[in-house]
Amino acid sequence: MTKLLSVTLSTLALVCASLIFSGSTQAQADQQIKTEIQKKLGTNAKVRSVTPAPVSGLYEVLVGNDIFYTDASAKYLIQGEIIELTSGKNITEQRQADLNRIKWTDLNSANAFKTVRGNGTRQLAIFSDPNCGYCKRLEKSLQQLDNVTIYTYLIPILSADSIQKAKQIWCSADPNKTYIDWMVNGVAPSGKSDCSNPLDKNLTFAKTYGITGTPTLFFTDGSRFPGAVQVTDIEKKFASLK
């Protein structure tokens, strides 16, 4: 019995050592590919990681938040999507969604103004620039939503005038009304712009989480929708969260 136990433990030790060696070898291969890809891309693009892709012989290359693929020799850079034919699952799209996901609790509601309609049970966060045409289109569409709480985070990234308008909106007596008056009704904000505001904090958050365009929407599961999303798509997302 003692001899059998000894043999079993020895076998387990060999298996563990083999797994550690295999993992180390894979990590070295990934690093070599990453180094080679970075060398070829130069300093204009930052390669965040290189990991084996779901398809044998391919590697996922993460540049910023964008997904590419390469071969083991780092000779080719492939731009496109991997789709599993048996299930129809878009593996690249799912991976991209996971990369773009945040924790809802990372959002600080004190840095946003809040709109509540109906019972307010459904929650949505929007990063917006007051001079963004797509943001204005989205806001007009959002007027159709009911039973929702919307947190609007101003990130003035388009121009100096965006900064001025964002400050005037935040400093107004009713930021939400002033924002909607401008975005939906075309009534420009006026008044003071020298109050304490969260704009710098919002811009820092946007940079940290790769929010490079407006509008950008987030749902309570952390998923991200960029652009002027259709209300029907927002409703579908809300339905999936139940």
Automatic annotation (TrEMBL):
It comes from the Bacteria. Residues 1-27 form the signal peptide. It is found in: Periplasm. Residues 117-236 form the Thioredoxin-like fold domain. The keyword Disulfide bond applies. Its main location: periplasm. Residues 25-93 form the Disulphide bond isomerase DsbC/G N-terminal domain. Belongs to the thioredoxin family. DsbC subfamily. PANTHER family: THIOL:DISULFIDE INTERCHANGE PROTEIN DSBC (PTHR35272:SF3), THIOL:DISULFIDE INTERCHANGE PROTEIN DSBC-RELATED (PTHR35272). Required for disulfide bond formation in some periplasmic proteins. Acts by transferring its disulfide bond to other proteins and is reduced in the process. This is Thiol:disulfide interchange protein. It comes from Polynucleobacter wuianus.
